[in-house]
Design goal:
Elements (H helix, E strand, L loop, with lengths): L1 H6 L6 H10 L13 H31 L8 E10 L2 E9 L1 H24 L6 H20 L3 H19 L6 H32 L4 H13 L8 H15 L7 H5 L5 H11 L1 H9 L1 H5 L2 H22 L5 H21 L3 H10 L1 H18 L15 H14 L6 H14 L4 H27 L15 H23 L5 E3 L2 E4 L5 H19 L13 H8 L4 H47 L6 H20 L7 H4 L4
Antiparallel strand pairs: 1-2, 3-4
Helix pairs in contact: 2-3, 2-5, 3-4, 3-5, 4-5, 4-11, 4-17, 4-21, 5-6, 5-11, 6-7, 7-9, 9-12, 11-17, 12-15, 12-16, 14-15, 14-20, 15-16, 15-20, 16-19, 17-18, 17-21, 18-20, 18-21, 19-20, 20-22
Length: 642
């Protein structure tokens, strides 16, 4: 029975996919008598089935591999062929491993909590079929992404996730800003997807396979035998990196995450916690190929470091609470890119593992505040600690999970990253980057907490009742998971223990500077924001700096003046050449023909007698030529054709 549960883990993505398809019955009103609510309950039921199956499959695989059962010790594989012709095979090949099942358990578990949360958050909303169907579509795509062993189908699934982003961001499509946000998010992610597609196509002739295990074997053969890399290999790897960059909201493809904040907050919980990590999952599986190209690895470090630093700075200037946390997503995933660029796959795994639960918890706590206070503007909140302490504790628990604050998971993962930077070519620079980013992330999280729960009540927070139990229960359950996550990771062997009697992540020489950076960043932020009148805006002398950061360092304006300006200029040049050259040439040809006809018409008199005389003279001249013998036809021309 246990073997069967693990072997059929490929069914897990199909449960939410079925729920998403069944939601179509409610979207156009085919089922109208029941109202939209049964659609949400149906999605929750099938998502719960996928979670239970994931947990049972993980337990089965872990217990059998621990026992050394030969039938299941090796990773289970499955697949089907979609297209096979002329030596080319395109198929969905999957592999069932413990990391994949852990990821699926995390994805499905969070989806269960978020769908319960959404039932209360969207209690009076009219868009249940579209929203819950899109959530289930996301879950199906993410589960398929962690199971697939094919780079080509990873690209296909990432395209579907881009479509899911468009659908779920546009849930409230009757609002113009929502339509713009959905469109911009879709188009921005499509840039990375198209570049990724070019890399996927160019990679096949070189490696002969799209399967990740085959690509890893090819990369190992290249490295072990010191073989020369094919021409253009670095460009191909750079193209492959573009896809994860777009999905993980890394500079310069980070604008979509800000635009996607127009969606309902429960979808933000999932997108900022597990959906963005989908790109990081693909990036980790491409690491053997990236390692062969020092330029690509260095570019990953530069992109990740820039995104980490810039994202944390921009977050400090945001007054929209969802955007403030979203830029911290780019910052944290930037550190993950740095780890991959340095070749630290275990470190990147740990950064990815400890991130989703704390981020989801903070967004759930924020959602409970936004719903009852009808605003997500940080300058309009405050003084909620006495009224909403449970949500405040939940937010602080999530924040502690991302700061380098022992004994939480974020501390252990960031300490490993700091250790990794000491073995790099630039230990001082990269080490300072990690410490500064951690300080800024800590400052940003304390700033959000202070502006919401610190200070005195505002007009919007004078009265702030607690939310429904359907929102409070998932939030408190997730709080317990985040608080116990370090012990879970230590007992499962992910992190080294601090001692036999202390099941928390260990210390080390790099822990002290990391802890100091947390205390400095968080302490300075607390000094400004945990007081009766928090500093909502910088002084007038620094107001320009805050505006510059709040507008994403004018990145959108820069793109409009450069990239968009270049495209518009080329479009105008193309239109001019089409009108002046192509249309001008064809138009001039027609005009020349008309002018020739007009001039020819002037040589005729228009008298029928003259035409008849000309015809008779022509006939007479032809007859005279024939009678003279010079125009006698050749006998061969008169011979019958056979």
């Amino acid at each position: 029975m246990t073997l069967f549960l693990a072997q059929t883990a490929w069914l897990v993505p199909l449960y939410p996919l079925l729920a998403s398809l069944l939601s179509l019955l409610w979207s156009p009103g085919l089922i109208s008598r029941t109202g939209p609510r049964p659609c949400g309950y149906l999605n929750l039921l099938l998502v719960s089935v996928s979670f239970v199956h994931s947990v049972l499959a993980l337990v089965a695989l872990h217990s059998n591999s621990t026992a050394g059962s030969a039938a299941i010790y090796q990773p289970l594989t499955f697949g089907w062929t979609w297209l096979q012709t002329a030596g080319l095979r395109i198929g969905f090949d999957g592999v069932i491993t413990e990391p994949a099942l852990i990821a699926m358990t995390l994805i499905t578990g969070l989806h269960v909590l978020v769908q319960i949360y959404s039932i209360a958050y969207l209690e009076m909303d009219w868009g249940w079929p579209r929203f819950f169907g899109s959530l289930s579509f996301f879950e199906s795509g993410l589960c398929a992404l962690v199971l697939t062993d094919s780079l080509f189908f990873s690209y296909v699934i990432m395209e579907l996730l881009t479509l899911g982003t468009y659908l779920i961001v546009g849930t409230w499509y009757n609002q113009p800003l929502v339509v713009k946000g959905a469109r911009d998010a879709f188009l921005t992610k499509r840039i990375g997807d198209l570049i990724l597609l070019a890399g996927v196509i160019a990679l096949l002739p070189i490696t002969g396979t799209w399967n990740f295990h085959g690509l890893q074997a090819w990369a190992a053969d290249q490295a072990n035998n010191h073989l020369a890399l094919p021409g253009g290999y670095t460009l191909i790897v750079l193209a492959l990196i573009a896809g994860p960059m777009g999905k993980c909201a890394q500079i310069p493809l980070h604008l979509w995450l800000d635009e996607a904040m127009e969606s309902p907050l429960p979808s933000t919980v999932l997108r900022n916690s597990v959906v963005v990590v989908g790109g990081a999952w693909v990036l980790l599986r491409l690491e053997p190929l990236i390692e062969l190209s020092p330029l690509a690895a260095s570019l990953l470090v530069v992109v990740g470091g820039t995104s980490a630093l810039v994202g944390s700075l921009i977050a400090l200037a945001q007054i929209d609470v969802k955007r403030a946390l979203s830029f911290l997503v780019s910052s944290w995933l930037g550190l993950l890119f740095v780890a991959v660029g340095l070749g630290g796959i275990p470190v990147a795994d740990h950064l990815m593992l400890v991130y989703p639960l704390p981020m989801a918890l903070m967004l759930m706590a924020i959602g409970a505040i936004v719903l009852t206070n009808v605003t997500q503007d940080l300058t309009q909140l405050g003084g909620l600690w006495s009224k909403r302490p449970l949500m405040g504790i939940a937010f602080l628990s999530g924040a502690a999970g991302l700061m380098a604050l022992p004994p939480f998971g974020g501390f252990a993962a960031l300490r490993e990253l700091l250790v990794l930077t000491t073995t790099s070519g630039q230990p001082a620079l990269l080490g300072a980057l990690v410490l500064l980013t951690n300080a800024l992330i800590s400052a940003g999280l304390i700033r959000v907490f202070g502006l919401i729960w610190g200070g005195r009540p505002s007009v919007f927070t004078t009265r702030s009742p607690e939310v429904l139990w359907l929102m409070a229960l998932p939030t408190l359950l997730l709080t317990g998971l985040v608080l116990h996550l370090p012990q879970i990771l230590v007992r499962s062997g992910v992190f080294a223990s601090a001692g036999s009697l202390l099941p928390i992540p260990g210390w080390g020489p790099e822990a002290l500077p990391l802890l100091l950076s947390t205390l400095v960043g968080g302490g300075l932020s607390a000094l400004f924001y945990l007081r009766p009148h928090p500093l909502a805006h910088l002084p007038a002398a620094l107001g320009g700096l805050q505006d510059w950061l709040a507008h994403d360092m004018q990145t959108e304006r820069f793109y409009h003046r450069t990239v968009v300006g270049l495209v518009v200029g080329l479009a105008r040049l193309s239109a001019w050449s089409d009108q002046r050259l192509v249309d001008g040439f064809s138009g001039a040809t027609g005009e020349a023909a008309l002018e020739g006809a007009r001039r020819l018409s002037l040589t005729t008199s228009g008298r029928s007698q003259a035409y008849a005389l000309t015809l008779v003279l022509g006939v007479l001249l032809m007859a005279a030529w024939l009678l003279s013998g010079q125009g006698t036809p050749s006998p061969d021309l008169l011979r019958p054709l056979r």
